[in-house]
Amino acid sequence: MNIEKLLSAFPLPEEKRKILSNIDKDAMEKSIDAMIAKPAEAAKGLVALLKDPEQAPGADIQARHAIHAVAIRIPAKDQKKRAAYAEALASTLADEHPDAVKAFVIRQIQVCGGKEVIPHIGKFLTVEGIADDAAQALLAIGGEEAVKPFRAALPKVSESTELRQIQLHGLAELADKASKDAFLKALGDKDEHCRLLAMWGLVQIADKSTIDAYLKAEQKEQGFARNKAAHFTLQFAEKLKGADAKKVYQHIAKTRTGKTEKHLVELAKSKL
């Protein structure tokens, strides 16, 4: 496959206006189809042409355009080719590339990847600067397999607030019941956002055994966190039943005594 020749069909920005205006759509679509026909070869060849955007901004615009165009189209064309393309992209993450290039590749995998790429992407949940892109890709894939890398990463990132936030967000978003103890522990995190993410995680799994710990923690919050916690607490109550839900509503009515919190008390009392 002659990648350079196929890329010649992709437009370059005009010198003056810096926009893509001269586009030969038919030629570009033919190039995309040719890449889809040999997805693994295309993926590796395209990634090899990527440059560090800080060192050579815009120098690889055609390769980036092509990678994204194939990622968008290939899922609707052929699932086997989709998997081959995604796996080939993921395999390049083990090569020597700048972090910015790896992050870009992961964002393209987010568009077309499935379970086959999870082991490759999960490794980057502990890498600052790339972890957020890896997390978004895993969340897009979803499912039980996507949860496992977050579970594995959380104990390894205790020294990084940003990485703790990313892991807790992923586990909460995926409503991981097996992370109940991790959420309970994070209720005491020194970082406000981590504590809020822990609350959200407990709301997501709605385990009645966590009610007391949750309510004890949420009433300690102040300012923005107090407001956010109140909304999480209402969501928690909505997911519970009978006496458990009543307990949470009663807690809101009792603890939200500020002048700006009257609406919360009224809402909670209306549910009792």
Derived from helix and strand composition plus strand pairing, the structural class reads mainly alpha
Biggest sheet layout: none
Q: Level of helix content?
A: 55-70%
What is the arithmetic mean of pLDDT?
Answer: 95
Structure annotation, total helices: 16
Order of helix and strand elements from N to C terminus: HHHHHHHHHHHHHHHH
Number of strands: 0
% residues in beta strands:
under 5%
Rg, rounded, reads: 24 Å
Poorly predicted regions are: none
Bulk shape: elongated
Distance between the termini: 69 Å
How would you describe the overall organization of this protein?
The chain is mainly α. Among the domains are: 113 residues, no CATH class; 75 residues, no CATH class. 66% of the residues lie in helices and 0% in strands. It contains 16 helices and no strands. Helix 10 packs parallel to helix 12 and helix 14 runs antiparallel to helix 15. The mean pLDDT is 95.
Short description:
This protein is an all-alpha fold and 272 residues long. Helix content is 66%, strand content 0%.
List the helices and strands and how they pair.
Elements: H1 3-7, H2 25-37, H3 39-47, H4 61-77, H5 79-91, H6 99-112, H7 118-122, H8 131-141, H9 144-153, H10 161-173, H11 180-186, H12 192-205, H13 211-218, H14 223-239, H15 242-255, H16 262-270
Keywords:
272 residues; mainly alpha; elongated; 16 helices
